[in-house]
Amino acid sequence: MNLNEFLELLQHPKAIPKDLELTNLVIKDLNLSKGSLANWTFRECDFVDCSFDDCEMPMGRFEACHLSNCNFSDCDLSDTHWNQCAIDKSVLQNTTLKRSEWLETQLHKVQLDSVDFSNSNLTSTKFESIKGINLIFDEISFYECLFSQSEFESCQGKASSWVSCEMPAIKLVHSNLENARFLGNCNLTDAQLTDNNLNDASFLEATLTSADLSECELENANFCDADLNHATLNRISAPRSVWTKSNLNGADLYGSNLMNTLLISARLTGTDFSATNLYGADFYQAILGDNSFFRANLNQTILADWQP
Q1: Whole-angstrom Cα distance, residue 252 to residue 256?
Q2: What is the spatial distance between Cα 174 and Cα 34, in angstroms, rounded to a whole number?
Q3: How many angstroms separate the Cα of 60 from the Cα of each of 20, 74, 83?
Q4: Separation of alpha carbons 87 and 90, rounded Å
Q5: Is pTM, for the whole model, over 0.85?
């Protein structure tokens, strides 16, 4: 189907069939509002300054497409596939992308507002200069994704998975990330992760050097073998969390709740525990030195075989 045939078809929305494919088209200034394009495939198409408001496109496929200055509002994009696409300077709001699949796709300067990505899979996808608010990431899977100069606020990502992702200096705040998994040497260097619900989350072997997790809820969180060198963890609530063999050298844990935590074999040189509740915490074979425990609660704290 050529461009003229496609434009003619759009004049008769009730006659639009399913399962059509468009290839190698350049589509500019097109209004696809309230269109029904379920199961359509767009292959190597360029969309410039297009509007997809209130558009129904479930099960659609975008293969090697480029979308620039496009707007998706109140759209159904559930179960869509995005393969080797580029989305630039576009807006997605009040849109569902549930169960969508993303492979080697790039998003640059995209604004995301109230978008539902739940149960989606994103592999080798790049997020550059993204601003996202009120997003739903429940049970989403990010694998080997790159986040650069991106900010996310007031999101929900329960049981989300972030594996082998590069997320340096990401801003991800005021969000519910309960039971999230940051695994596979996830890089969160200089990340701002303040005021998040991270109860039951895992940062196993993650890099959190100079990251800020202040005022986070981290009950039962797992930081085994994580690198938190010079991280800021002021006023965190992390009872029963596990920090075995983690690197907390120079970290700031001022005013935190670390009741019944496991700090076994942790590196704690220069770590600040001022005004911290360490009731029942276990420092077995931890490496301590040049620490501050000013006004800390050390009742029932286990310091057996600690190392200077």
Answers
A1: 9
A2: 34
A3: 10, 16, 11
A4: 7
A5: yes
DSSP state of 237: B
The amino acid sitting at 66 is H
Buried b (16+ CB within 10 A) or exposed e, 43-82: eebbbeebbbbbbebbbbbbbbbbbbebbbbebbbbbbbb
Q: Over the Cα atoms of the chain, what is R_g?
A: 24
Residue 93, beta-bridge partner list: 73, 113
Query: Residue 115 is inside which H or E element, if any?
Result: strand 111-116
The 10 Å CB-count burial string (b at 16+, else e) for 194-204 is bebbbbbbbbb
Per-residue tokens: 168: 């340096």
Closest C-alpha to 141, from 124, 116, 162: 162
Token duo for residue 198: 């991270």
Residue pair 188/182 in contact (Cβ under 8 Å)? The answer is: yes
Which SS3 state, helix, strand or coil, does residue 3 take? helix
- pLDDT averaged over every residue in the chain: 95
The DSSP call for residue 16 is P
**What token pair was written down for 247?**
């690197």
Q: Has residue 13 got a pLDDT over 70?
A: no
The dihedral through the CA atoms of 224, 228, 229, 230 has a sign that is negative
Backbone angles phi, psi at 233, to 5 degrees: -130, 50
Give the side-chain half-sphere CA count within 13 A for 124: 5
Residue the block writes with tokens 């935590």: 261
Strand (E) or helix (H) holding 8: helix 3-10
Residue 63, beta-bridge partner list: 43, 83
What's the start-to-end Cα distance of the chain, in Å? 74
| In the block, residue with structure tokens 């090697």 | 64
**pLDDT tens, 168-197?**
999 999 999 999 999 999 999 999 999 999
Contact present, 187 and 208 (Cβ < 8 Å): no
- Tokens standing for residue 86: 């580029």
